[in-house]
Amino acid sequence: MDNQDRPQMEAALKQTIIPALRSAGFRGSFPHFRRIGNIQTDLWTFQVDKYGGGFVIEISSCPREGMTTAWGKFIPASKVTAHDINERLRLQNHPGSDTTAWYRYDTDAIDTIIARILEALPLAEDWWAERSVHELENRKRA
């Protein structure tokens, strides 16, 4: 596969992963999705390799209302993305810190990538649930 396959990869994401996100309560459009809950806003962002051929998924969360940056700018929940938050989890094909560890549609079959992302959804839900407990505890202390 090569960079010509990006339209096919995005089509597969839109046919499988995005409907799964929507059924889990997420709203938004590619590449940024948000689920505004009672306690926190869960975030899911597809980060595409600027050189093509791959992507990674960044997930994060912030308070239900949104978040304030270190320099004082408030970003409402309807606009915040995973990239706005320092603490986030990277979902990728395998461990590693460079783009070769990302989901690579220039070397792997699209069906395989989709299956791996679907397998990672419960991990993301667990990560958000853990953050939700911490957010609730922080609010009780405030």
Provide structural commentary.
The chain is an alpha+beta fold and 142 residues long. The chain has one domain. The protein is 35% helix and 27% strand. The longest helix is centred in the C-terminal third of the chain and has 32 residues. It is globular and about 45 Å long.
| Global mean pLDDT | 91
Indicate the percent of residues in helices: 25-40%
Poorly predicted regions? none
What would you call the shape? globular
Output the structural class: alpha+beta
Ends: how far apart? Answer: 52 Å
Number of strands: 8
Largest sheet: 6 strands, antiparallel
**H/I helix tally:** 2
Radius of gyration: 16 Å
Query: Which percent range describes the beta-strand content?
Result: 25-35%
What would you say about this model in short?
This protein is of the alpha+beta class and 142 residues long. The chain has 2 helices and 8 strands; from the N terminus they run αββββββββα.
